[in-house]
């Protein structure tokens, strides 16, 4: 890839799923699931979670925290947390969305923070210690939001994909693990590096939409970040189009510097 220009691939099959090859750290690789896959392919194991009635899950996500013993699931408009050691429910967000919840993702650097998206065109961010209200809500899409993903290294960067054929990259810095950026003590700065007064008084960065990507012509069902390059991400639409993009260079340097 040169500069910020996207790379676009066309697949022969309709597609619904996308994931990075996490074991590969030297090469940029993504695995794509097409409509030709069978649900029972290479089923390793299954388990049941207790709940009232017959819960039909639409999505699930392992928490990278708590020694990977907790998982979040979505059924209908609710989001539930489970402890796999006791197979019991740890929290429940009733009516998390006005319509069906499509996807979930945990903040990799803040153990109690969870993102959800759904058919109400919204993306919501939750603190699972207090699920009365979301800590933040995004309403940038005009149709169902199918996918939400935190950046693994810089959790203020959040990707979403929707049936409106758009991919949106947001900078959710206010609820990130570094809401004020990289903090540096004045004592650690040399005379040449000492900040000017006007720089010290600047307000912290604000949440915003960084970029909207419109290379797709069909519903975007999946988005994800590369496991080899934290600034690179892929998106997949129903017609089999795979698009690979980079975080804008200006934002990358702003985060790093």
UniProtKB/TrEMBL annotation:
Spans of the WD repeats are: 94-130
Checking InterPro entries in the record gives: Beta-prop_EIPR1-like (IPR059104), EIPR1 (IPR040323), WD40/YVTN_repeat-like_dom_sf (IPR015943), WD40_repeat_CS (IPR019775), WD40_repeat_dom_sf (IPR036322), WD40_rpt (IPR001680)
Superkingdom, taxonomy of origin: Eukaryota
What spans are recorded as compositionally biased (Basic and acidic residues)?
192-202
Q: Which family does it belong to?
A: Belongs to the WD repeat EIPR1 family.
Where do the EIPR1-like beta-propeller domain residues begin and end? 55-169
* Name this protein carries in UniProt: EARP and GARP complex-interacting protein 1
